[in-house]
Write a structure and sequence with these properties.
The protein is 32% helix and 23% strand. By secondary structure, the protein is α/β, with parallel strands linked by helices.
């Protein structure tokens, strides 16, 4: 492992805004994010597969009266967003280092107000359906953790994954679709995202890929 990566892991150990295994709060934070981590009562927004945290940090800049948590398993990626948030004194941002399939170990029923799923791995093979972050088992997990009328936002460059997700959501009587588009940057909803883009979203857009977007809530 490189010296740079080792230093980043050490920084994660010391940075208050990184919640990871080995820290006391890691075992205690479920249902207590606002009390233990943020020490306020602001609504909680979570981004899954946040990578370097560009979107999490970008939203936190725009909405200082909300708390934001980026979730990813890669510590070196989380380090980037964590460091930027500390440099900018953004006290409404934290990062959780864990596998997303373990998310229900860290968030209690009705604890999340808004959820973002941004450019996840499409897992195109039929045998990998359960690994997709919009598969039925993950949707059930999200439903339990979201507040009533809490919103889910899904963005992807992958048409196959988007078609799969849209069809699944449309088939469920307990879900209301608020909006969807196959060309986000030509849609009426682009301004709602304040021009915030992840590294990969920029790459996809520069290659001419259309960004797909879906917003829905559980009933």
């Amino acid at each position: 492992m490189s010296r740079k990566k080792l230093q980043r892991f050490q920084d994660n150990e010391e940075n208050w805004n990184v919640v990871q295994e080995g820290k006391e709060i890691f075992e205690q934070v479920k249902g207590k994010w606002n009390g233990l981590q943020f020490q306020n009562r602001q609504p909680l927004t979570v981004e899954l597969a946040c990578g370097r945290g560009e979107f999490t940090v970008g939203l936190a800049r725009q909405y200082p009266n909300r708390n934001f948590i980026g979730v990813d398993i890669k510590g070196a990626r989380i380090w980037k967003g964590s460091t930027i948030a500390l440099e900018e004194d953004l006290n409404n941002v934290s990062f959780l280092r864990t596998q997303i399939q373990l998310l229900d170990k860290f968030f209690d029923q009705g604890e999340i107000s808004e959820l973002w799923i941004t450019f996840p791995d499409p897992y195109p093979r039929d045998g990998d359906e359960k690994r997709r972050l919009t598969s039925p088992r993950f949707l059930e997990m999200y439903k339990s953790m979201l507040k009533q009328d809490g919103l889910v936002h899904f963005k992807s460059d992958n048409t196959g994954l988007f078609d799969y997700t849209l069809a699944l959501v449309q088939s469920r009587e307990d879900i209301e679709i608020v909006a969807y588009t196959y060309d986000f940057y030509s849609s009426d909803w682009k301004n709602e995202h304040h021009g915030i883009q992840t590294k990969y979203e920029k790459i996809f857009s520069e290659k001419g890929e259309k960004i797909k977007y879906l917003k829905f809530r559980f009933l």
